[in-house]
Amino acid sequence: MKAFSKHILSFFKADWTLEDYPVRFRHFRVDESEARRRLTPAPWMARVINWPLMFGHGQTQEEAYADLKRHFEEYKGGSKALPRPGTKVRPAIELAPTVEIEQYEPLANEFFEKILAMNYNECLVTDESSLWDFHSEETNEEYHRKIMEVYGTDVSDIENGNLVRIFERVRAQGRPA
């Protein structure tokens, strides 16, 4: 009903704002033991009804709405046209490129096995992938130590843990790709 009314109202104006879209709020129970971890789940979510990938999270309902608004404004500021309020939006998922990471495939296979204890070929890895994507620890210190032991390369200054940057460093210090 909310989506239908917003849809009808959308025909009376051309420049839509987030306020023109139907928004649903959801509160999740957060286990106290999870609240102390690096990847703390947010208890609130605000989502545009019928637009699965337009959402925001926060510690409060207001923070979730502010996060949703930030995402909405980023989308609106891009070159994509806004969907009409109240209509169903089919998600178009865009993956980051893999051009750079593919240059390091042999090293990546070995790295994933020896450092992350994972099979590289069973993971989605892009040029934007980071050590942070493959664990839930508070820091990357354990992985930095393993990389130093296995490859003799210090990568602790690569704060974002970008795998392409790590592989570049390992290769630059004489490790074959």
Which features does this protein show?
3 strands, 2 domains, mainly alpha, 6 helices, Double Stranded RNA Binding Domain, 177 residues, three-stranded antiparallel sheet
Write up what this structure looks like.
This protein is mainly α and 177 residues long. It has 2 domains: 2-77, Double Stranded RNA Binding Domain; 99-172. It is 35% helix and 8% strand. It is built from 6 helices and 3 strands.
Question: Summarize this, please?
Answer:
The protein has 177 residues and is mainly alpha-helical. The chain has two domains: 2-77, Double Stranded RNA Binding Domain, CATH 3.30.160; 99-172.
CATH class of the largest domain: Alpha Beta
Q: What is the quaternary state of this protein?
A: single chain
Mean pLDDT rating: 89
- What spatial form do the alpha-carbon principal axes imply? elongated
**Tally of discrete structural domains:** 2
Number of strands: 3
* Classification by helices and strands: mainly alpha
The CATH topology assignment of the largest domain is Double Stranded RNA Binding Domain
Give the radius of gyration.
21 Å
Provide a count of the helices: 6
CATH architecture classification name of the largest domain: 2-Layer Sandwich
The run of helices and strands is: HEEEHHHHH
In helices, the fraction of residues equals 25-40%
Largest β sheet strand count, sense and barrel closure: 3 strands, antiparallel
- What fraction strand? 5-15%
Return residue spans where pLDDT drops below 50 for at least 5 consecutive residues. Answer: none
Distance between the amino and carboxyl termini: 57 Å
